[in-house]
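Practice problem 4.
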């Protein structure tokens, strides 16, 4: 398996984890009272947007040719870290 494939697999596993986190938060939101439910739903929508951003990054790396993926990885790692932090903050709030 190439370094690119390993990197993509790591990203895909993280996306799966975030999708599971969103599912858990959505279940909690359904059980919450009205005012709290609105806050949950706003946070969930923000997380979904972050997840979509991450999916786009995965697609960019996947489609890159040759060594270009490493350049995308450099810029993408910082963005990926920001997304990870957003999910951590959401977990703490809920």
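Answer key:
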């Amino acid at each position: 398996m190439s370094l690119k494939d390993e990197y993509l697999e790591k990203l895909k596993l993280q996306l799966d984890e975030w999708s599971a986190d969103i599912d858990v938060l959505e279940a909690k939101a359904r059980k919450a009272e009205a005012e709290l439910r609105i806050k949950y739903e706003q946070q969930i929508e923000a997380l979904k947007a972050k997840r979509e951003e991450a999916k786009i990054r995965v697609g960019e790396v996947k489609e890159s040719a040759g060594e270009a993926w490493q350049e995308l990885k450099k810029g993408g790692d910082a963005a990926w870290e920001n997304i990870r932090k957003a999910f951590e903050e959401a977990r703490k709030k809920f």
